[in-house]
């Protein structure tokens, strides 16, 4: 079965993709009748060397994303994973020559089709009297024994685009650029790894991997790698990659050793999440620095993809200061990242967090018995939430991601760990404030934020008094904060429904002679009734509001949890 692609047609997808890039970039133009993109300011290159590259489509943003001042003059694109036509390559060479350039350098990845087609176009151009040179880039470090075909051209080619572009922008001649680029290319290596294959539009995946396998040393056209390894952690895979790339017994290794200075390029092969890319980048930095290697620059992103392949490649380029200046030179190419001209290694990466302000002694602290009672209440709340974990998760699966119980259990475990550190504050205001911070840090999710908001606001009225009217005011303040920032209202099928119902009953505490337990008992019953009523409500806020069905058959898990917390508090106070 072929994979789904957002294309207009399989046959026209390469043309459409290049047209889209040019349409959105005023610095680029298409060459009429050819799948060629060029700088729109070609006349400004008079007297300088032009740089042309290209290859099959499907590697975006390579190659057209690297057209611009300080990088490529133009790009010739083939169909997906197919070498471009000789006629189009020759047309591009003629175009830049007619603009007054003093020669053209063709930067070609080491694949048979590219070598043949670019080589033939070069010979034809030279026959017409146009000075053209060609460099073939092979940076693949996968093969321990070199084959006749040589090393494949991979993402390291992008660094060659940058170096050559900086030299050309500085006015360096064709022969000297060619010489320097060939030297740089020999000090570079790339290795790829993928979790699965990719699929050319209109075709099936190019290879299959089992769920516990990873492909090591693959190319950028969906071809299989040198071997398959078992799935492992990011740290382990990065270590394996770097070990392979720097192994001196590997004929295609990069001669990196302790004390070496490198540019590191972490490239997304197309389908890896940015989260995973960051994890890989961190692992690579730690692993290289652990080997005594200095990372002079780090480039992380998508530079040369293989359609939607979920994988990465690592490129290492040995550098000195003159080469770094070329890497750092200005470019207008849209796909080149804005990298600071500062070494990664040796930079301070952490800032000390500000110290927490010292808490003032609270005059409402009333001693040990109150603290013990607080501890009993909290322990009952924790045991209640832990017992409800699976039930709340089951309720949440109907409208959310099924983790409401897990989130509340995480809060319960965090509170238990905190209680082990010592007795809780006797002061209600200090207790609620500390619980707020704890839940914000440990509970997570929107529930953690909402409870944190509620407790922070509720603590304020209790700083002055701890009478029943003050507790009622605390409930009012908490509910107001939840509505202000959570945007929920009573009747929206959220945890607010239970708390709001309880809050209405607790208004009775503001009357002289109100009975604590009698009012609280009514409040708990109202909260439980409100929680049950949520199953007949249409969700107006929270994740459940995005469910297409107007009503959900189960009560809201957040409302059920809030009512259970209030029930636990009541039971301890009654005992």
TrEMBL record:
Domain of life: Eukaryota
EC number: 2.7.1.28, 2.7.1.29, 4.6.1.15
Reaction(s) this enzyme catalyzes, per UniProt: FAD = riboflavin cyclic-4',5'-phosphate + AMP + H(+); dihydroxyacetone + ATP = dihydroxyacetone phosphate + ADP + H(+); D-glyceraldehyde + ATP = D-glyceraldehyde 3-phosphate + ADP + H(+)
GO terms classed as biological process: glycerol catabolic process
Function: Catalyzes both the phosphorylation of dihydroxyacetone and of glyceraldehyde, and the splitting of ribonucleoside diphosphate-X compounds among which FAD is the best substrate. Represses IFIH1-mediated cellular antiviral response.
One GO MF term: metal ion binding
Domain DhaL intervals: 372-571
Keywords assigned by UniProt, alphabetized: ATP-binding, Cobalt, FAD, Flavoprotein, Kinase, Lyase, Magnesium, Manganese, Metal-binding, Multifunctional enzyme, Nucleotide-binding, Phosphoprotein, Transferase
Subunit structure: Homodimer. Interacts with IFIH1 (via the CARD domains), the interaction is inhibited by viral infection.
Cofactors (names): Mn(2+); Co(2+); Mg(2+)
GO cellular component: cytosol
Cross-referenced InterPro entries: DhaK_ATP, DhaK_dom, DhaL_dom, DhaL_dom_sf, Dihydroxyacetone_Kinase
The species this protein was found in: Piliocolobus tephrosceles
Catalytic-site annotation from UniProt: 221
Family statement drawn from the similarity comment of this UniProt entry: Belongs to the dihydroxyacetone kinase (DAK) family.
Protein's UniProt name: Triokinase/FMN cyclase
SMART domains named among the record's database cross-references: Dak2 (SM01120)
Span of domain DhaK: 9-336
The keyword Electron transport is assigned to this record: no
Stretches assigned to coiled coil: none
Binding site for substrate: 56-59, 109, 114
């Amino acid at each position: 079965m072929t994979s789904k692609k957002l294309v207009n047609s399989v046959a026209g997808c390469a043309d459409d993709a290049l047209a889209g890039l040019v349409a959105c970039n005023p610095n680029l133009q298409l060459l009429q009748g050819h799948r060629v993109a060029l700088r729109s300011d070609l006349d400004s290159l008079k007297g300088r060397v032009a740089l042309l590259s290209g290859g099959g489509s499907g590697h975006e943003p390579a190659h057209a994303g690297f057209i611009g001042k300080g990088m490529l003059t133009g790009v010739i694109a083939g169909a997906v994973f197919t070498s471009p036509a000789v006629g189009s390559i020759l047309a591009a060479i003629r175009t830049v020559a007619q603009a007054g350039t003093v020669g053209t350098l063709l930067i070609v990845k080491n694949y048979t089709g590219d070598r043949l087609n670019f080589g033939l176009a070069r010979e034809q151009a030279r026959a017409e009297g146009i000075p053209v040179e060609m460099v073939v880039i092979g940076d693949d470090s996968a093969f321990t024994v070199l084959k006749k075909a040589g090393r494949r051209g991979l993402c390291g080619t992008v660094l060659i685009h940058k170096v050559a572009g900086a030299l050309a922008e500085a006015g360096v001649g064709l022969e000297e650029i060619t010489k320097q680029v060939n030297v740089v290319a020999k000090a570079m290596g790339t290795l790829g790894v993928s979790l699965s294959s990719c699929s050319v539009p209109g075709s099936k995946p190019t290879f299959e991997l089992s769920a516990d396998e990873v492909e090591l040393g693959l190319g950028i056209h969906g071809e299989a790698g040198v071997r398959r390894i078992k799935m492992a952690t990011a740290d382990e895979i990065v270590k394996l990659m770097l070990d392979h790339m720097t192994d001196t017994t590997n004929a295609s290794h990069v001669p990196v050793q302790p004390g070496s200075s490198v540019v590191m390029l972490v490239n997304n092969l197309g389908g890896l999440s940015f989260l995973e890319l960051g994890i890989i980048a961190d692992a690579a930095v730690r692993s290289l620095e652990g080997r005594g290697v200095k990372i002079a620059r780090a480039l992380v992103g998508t530079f040369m993809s293989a359609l939607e392949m979920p994988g990465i490649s690592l490129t290492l380029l040995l550098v000195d200061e003159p080469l770094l200046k070329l890497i750092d030179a200005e470019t207008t190419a849209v796909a080149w990242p804005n990298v600071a001209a500062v070494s990664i290694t040796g930079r301070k990466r952490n800032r000390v967090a500000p110290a927490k302000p010292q808490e003032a002694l609270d005059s409402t602290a009333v001693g040990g018995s109150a603290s013990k009672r607080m501890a009993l209440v909290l322990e009952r709340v924790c045991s209640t939430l832990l017992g409800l974990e699976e039930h709340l998760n089951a309720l949440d699966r109907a409208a959310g991601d099924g983790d409401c119980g897990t989130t509340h259990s995480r809060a319960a475990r965090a509170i238990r760990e905190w209680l082990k550190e010592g007795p809780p504050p006797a002061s209600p205001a200090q207790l609620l404030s500390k619980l707020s911070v704890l839940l914000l840090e440990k509970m997570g999710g929107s529930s953690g934020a909402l409870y944190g908001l509620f407790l922070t606001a509720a603590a304020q009225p209790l700083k002055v008094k701890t009478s029943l009217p003050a507790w009622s005011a605390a409930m009012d303040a908490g509910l107001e904060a939840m509505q202000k920032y959570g945007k929920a209202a009573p009747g929206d099928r959220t945890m607010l429904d239970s708390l709001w119902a309880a809050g209405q009953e607790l208004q009775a505490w503001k009357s002289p002679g109100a009975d604590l337990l009698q009012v609280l008992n009514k409040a708990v019953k109202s909260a439980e009734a409100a929680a049950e009523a949520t199953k007949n409500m249409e969700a107006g806020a929270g994740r459940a509001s995005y469910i297409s069905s107007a009503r959900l058959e189960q009560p809201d898990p957040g409302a059920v949890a809030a009512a259970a917390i209030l029930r636990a508090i009541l039971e301890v106070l009654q005992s």
